[in-house]
Amino acid sequence: MKKIEIKKIIELYFFKILKKKINNKTKIISNELIDSLGTIELISFIEKEFKIHLKENDLKIKKLDTIDSISNLILGKIK
To answer: Which of 15, 28, 37, 40 has the most neighbouring CB atoms within 10 Å?
Structure first.
């Protein structure tokens, strides 16, 4: 899977839950667009959608805060 495909899936996920489009650099957690429950739901979505397991080290805000960082995390797990 290519990074652009991953980004599109993540963008669609956030559009569905936030009811608005966000760009690749928008800080999702830092700007409190999602709360702690939303973060758990995001992690669950990522693991199910991409069939990967995120470890404790993967659950840092800097790795889950933007569409770009989430896409990089996923791409690193599926390669």
So the answer is: 28
